[in-house]
Amino acid sequence: MNHPASFDPEEWVIDSNDRTTLAIKIKERLFYEKSPYQTVEVFETCDRGKMLTIDRMVMCTEADETSYHEMLVHVPMQTKPEVKNVLVIGAGDGGTIRELVRYENIETITMVEIDEAVVRASKEFLPTISCALNHPKLKLLIDDGIKFVKDAADNSYDLIIIDSSDPVGPSEGLFTKSFYQDVYRCLRPDALISVQSESPVFNPQAFKELNQCLKKIFGKEKVHCYLVFIPMYPSGIWSLTCASKSDLNPLDFNRDRVLKFIQKHSLSYYNADIHISAFALPNYIKRMIGEE
Amino acid sequence: MNHPASFDPEEWVIDSNDRTTLAIKIKERLFYEKSPYQTVEVFETCDRGKMLTIDRMVMCTEADETSYHEMLVHVPMQTKPEVKNVLVIGAGDGGTIRELVRYENIETITMVEIDEAVVRASKEFLPTISCALNHPKLKLLIDDGIKFVKDAADNSYDLIIIDSSDPVGPSEGLFTKSFYQDVYRCLRPDALISVQSESPVFNPQAFKELNQCLKKIFGKEKVHCYLVFIPMYPSGIWSLTCASKSDLNPLDFNRDRVLKFIQKHSLSYYNADIHISAFALPNYIKRMIGEE
């Protein structure tokens, strides 16, 4: 086992919070662009496939993006399979859209991504992730998601997915109360949301604050935090959150329907046991969000 | 967010498989010794408490050692609370013993750790982890665990815990068929084992081989892999395995008893939902071990 003390930036991509660092070995950089919002890069890694980073934060690798995208989409969709109109904020790599278009009863998906460079890079270099970005049900807008929900009509969506990067740069506003007040207003009465809600270990403050924010808006009992193993995110433990405007509980779903869905789609991470299990939180995480 | 390109070994401890690297920032080194077996070190980290490493592989940090130790001990113990005689191989930091001595009905714990330097460093610098290493029920032997089980009598233990480091150096023999044949022979007819069984992402080959090895010896249906979030192990996803000589299923346990146990002991990670949930495996991991 080799322990390099220095990381040549030609060979390693580093994602760090100054106390914990994840370094992923790369073969080459395939894409680099300083967009008006952020630095977008795609790398060929040594053993995790291609990888998208924004400001050097890992957004996804081909090897484990399915964990994130399948859990962000199938948990709410299997909770409420009648969803017809979906709004997605962020999601420039397209993985969330790929999972959504598996559902035939979805009629429209509106996706609002602020940075066209992310979409362009993903379309060119991450075809297995971005493959549904030209889907006929998708209306892809390059626009500010915060402004979009502010201007959106009341009661318009059955599901809103917030598939954002971390709360720095253009995503910062996606972690605020005013944004989620607009999201809430745009939801139909029996609608729900799923949200990238940060790591309780790598970003504990952002994790706690977003949980509190969602509970203030949706009500304490209607916000359900769940966990996903994402090895190529620093700390490997990541949270998503599902919240509903009505009394939909993401633990109530039809196991037989999930089983048929899994068999048809050959998913990599999600299954019925994982759907339930993800909501079991270690005691220390329960304590962080006042649920013990 | 800062992205250092080089890691001063005075400031960072690096755990790497040459493709994925975890670097943990440290304040100072508290202990260093080249024992006859390995290099043992204890560090004060910046935000994860004190940390024990062996040959620069992270063994535990004060911040998340409970995840590992609670899951390694309470899953088998709550499955079979009548356990009286326990054998522990490895476990030099003492965390496993601390969890075991919570059970009053346990009569004897025999612990066989090959490297007294690990025990000595843990006793001096990790008191919250090593606190039970002088417990009256514990017989602590500094000896070779492989040789110990080879010489041990048949049908001697109700529970054997293999709390080893990774399969390099002195722990390599703890990942072999002949070792587990001896372990099996030493188990009473209704006994069980729990085992540190590596990361399916960071050490996929060792993970798969150990799973196959255990299934050959115990029988396919009696080997149950489960997962734990351990943020300070590289990739953050780690497996443990519970196997029984009889038909004990770790999913069959008394929830009420677990609830009382949790209330009494104020655990950090383990609870009844986590006990069940840990056995839910993502599809890609099921495929790795032929369970899909």
What does this structure look like?
The structure is a homodimer of 292-residue chains. With 292 residues, the first copy, chain A, is of the alpha/beta class. In chain A, 31% of the residues lie in helices and 29% in strands. In chain A, the strands form two sheets. A seven-stranded mixed beta sheet of chain A has the order 8-7-6-9-10-12-11, sandwiched between helices. In chain A, helix 6 packs across helix 7. The first copy, chain A, is globular. The model of chain A has no long low-confidence stretch (mean pLDDT 94). At the A-B interface, strand 1, strand 2 and helix 9 of A face strand 1, strand 2 and helix 9 of B.
Question: What gross morphology of chain A would you assign?
Answer: globular
Q: Unreliable segments of chain A (pLDDT under 50, ≥5 consecutive)?
A: none
Computed CA radius of gyration of chain A, to the nearest angstrom:
18 Å
Helical fraction of chain A:
25-40%
Largest interface: A-B, 60 and 60 residues
Mean pLDDT of chain A: 94
SSE ordering of chain A: EEEEEHEHEHHEHEHEHEEHHH
How many beta-strand runs of chain A? 12
Number of helices of chain A: 10
How can the largest sheet of chain A be summarized?
7 strands, mixed
Distance between the termini of chain A: 41 Å
Q: How does the helix and strand content of chain A classify structurally?
A: alpha/beta
Sequence of strands across the biggest β-sheet of chain A: 8-7-6-9-10-12-11
Query: Which oligomerization state do the chains in this entry correspond to?
Result: homodimer
* Amount of beta strand of chain A: 25-35%
